[in-house]
Design a protein that fits this description.
- The chain is an alpha/beta fold and about 475 residues long.
- The strands form six sheets. Strands 6-5-7-1-8-13-4-14 form an eight-stranded mixed sheet, with helices on both faces. Strands 2-3 form a two-stranded antiparallel sheet.
- The protein starts with 15 loop residues before the first helix and ends in a 13-residue tail after the last strand.
Length: about 475
Amino acid sequence: MKSSNPNHSSRSCPGPIQIATGGRRAFMQAGLAGFSTLSLPGILKYQAQAAESSNAGSDKKAVIMVWQPGGLSHLDSYDPKPEIGSEYRGPFKTIPTKIPGLQFTELMPRQAAIADKLVVLRSMRQTAGGHPAGSMQLLSGDPDTRDKPKPKYPDWMTISNYLMSQKGPRQNPLPCYVGINPPLEYNGPAYLGDAYSPFVVSGDPNSASFSVPNIGLTDMDEVRRIGRRSTLRQRLDTLERSFDQARELSALDEFESQAMTLLTNPQTKIAFDLSREDPRTRDRYGRNAWGQQLLLARRLVEAGVDVLTTSLNGPLCGRVQNWDDHAVNHNVFEAMKFRSQAYDQAVSALIEDIYARGLDKRVLVVVTGEFGRTPKIEYSPSTGAGNASAPAGTTQPGRDHWPRAFSNIWAGGGIETGRFIGATDKRGEDSIERICGPGDFLATIYHHLGIDAAKTMIKDFNGRPTPIVDHGKPIPELIA
């Protein structure tokens, strides 16, 4: 199912939580309201799913994926080509890194200074040129190159959450999978159902008014009120005595318990509370949305979250609020300069923190977008003035979608750092050495989580066992 590209289809396979409240996220935020409306068929359908055995990995491992929606220009960041002609080369100088033979552009001095703590993969490639299909390819492994409105296959984050849930009751009060402004536009649970979607944290963590609602309630009257609304056990006592010999309700009981814990355990509120961080640490990450998102990501995996995704989008990206640097959207070079300080500072602080706090064996950090940008610069009239974009009608430089070659960075995970993998040709148009595709990307992440992607299958909508990666292998240089 999931090795080299992504397909998006439908997401029906509702468990009881989906039937009652529309998914795990809505369920948690609704404070268990509506739990008592579940039907027996819904309960048994959920239980049948939960009973499926899977090869899940150790809950001691974690992944933070930092997503660049729209795609980072590899030539203007991790794979500069200073010797090529002006029709390809951007205006940025190159700078040395701590890795011999590796240069970045001048936009990333902080990451260059800690390059010994990361690995640059310069030879990623996929085959989809659109944002939906490109995202689906990289994150779910669907090989289809067509853009589709919904995923055909679940993304790796949802699958990991699902597989970990099969191991038994979760001891940590925090969710397994949290998304801080996560990349959900083109990806999702597909046939696994919304119960395995992330607990979503939205908004700007740098804002003074930022809060995560309905976690770690401290008002005891509110806690008791929620407890009274959680009447499933009382309403199903007779049903349980009749049907629970085969433990049909155990998974539902477990989910109810986890949700109540998230709502009422004060430790959950502490984990999300950035005010408990040293102000100097907050400064080091950057007092902006991206810096505080990555600090919150580190804080949550340190507290026990296993899968954490966060998107670097919004106003810090420029006028169109993403990395999609067509000339009609942005002046690509102004956009790269506009976002580079916040990006460089936040990512370097996260990587440094992972090592400084002894998390580098447990936590794997991956920073990537769905593809790169065209090596050859294109010129078109801007469609509007704003940050990193000239007034409408002004011709400006841009770079278009480019799946044939792009870069991403990896850190932590026990991997041997201080090196780079692969290469592109002299213009950065094609990956030519150690070419890696979506299947390799996915298998590498699964390997870190203790999931054998070559042997693990999950039933699709039709009940057919579907491999989570149908081809591709863990990248040897990126596994411990």
